[in-house]
Amino acid sequence: MSDNTEKAIEQDNVRRLSAAILEAKSARADRDDVVHEIRDLQRARLDVLKQELQDVIEDVPADDETFDFAISSGVQPRFWIDAVAYVAIARDRRTYRFLRDTRAGRVVLAEAEDAAPVADAVTRYVAERIVERKRQLEEPEERTAARPSPLASGQADAAASDEAAKRSRAGEALSGLALIIIGVLIGGATTLALLRDRVPEITSVLGLN
């Protein structure tokens, strides 16, 4: 094989590789354009849903930091409601899917091609979360109100101790009085018994017989 033939083959290989690289870049650009178009379309649909929920978003209490209401950037944009719930566009590029991540897995809360029913489902979800948060905030206050204060508890204990001491002293006094009465009765009975046994002697001494 001559040198000219080898050079022609090498040049042909270079041209083919360059053409392949160019085609690859062109195909990559086309795919990127498609991806960008899909992403832009999904984001536009999520923007429509966010507009549907604008009144709800404005009604959420300002001090409630539970919710996000933000559309994330990425290959698949998501409209985040809170840290675990979001709305995404399905593969058909038309259907809204309201999803929530749980310990048992991902749950579909609502799914529709129209934004309105999904917006209603999101509204109910937000309302339930607000009620749940309010209840969690009120429960510690109720437990605190139901729990007696240390001062009141101490005063009640002191009063109970005083009452128990009074009852103890009264019981001891009654017990002492009862012992005295029993002693008197026993002494009187003993005296009567002795006198009864010596009645004849006393009568004899006095000359009554």
Which features would summarize this protein structure in a list?
209 residues; alpha+beta; 5 strands; rod-shaped
General description of the model:
- By secondary structure, this protein is α+β, with helices and mostly antiparallel strands.
- The chain folds into two domains: 49-146, no CATH class; 156-206.
- It is 69% helix and 11% strand.
- The chain has five helices and five strands, in the order ααβββββααα.
- It has helices spanning 3-52, 54-59, 115-146, 150-197, 199-206, and strands spanning 70-71, 79-80, 85-89, 96-102, 105-112.
- The chain has a five-stranded antiparallel β-sheet.
- Helix 1 packs across helix 3.
- It starts with a helix and ends with a helix.
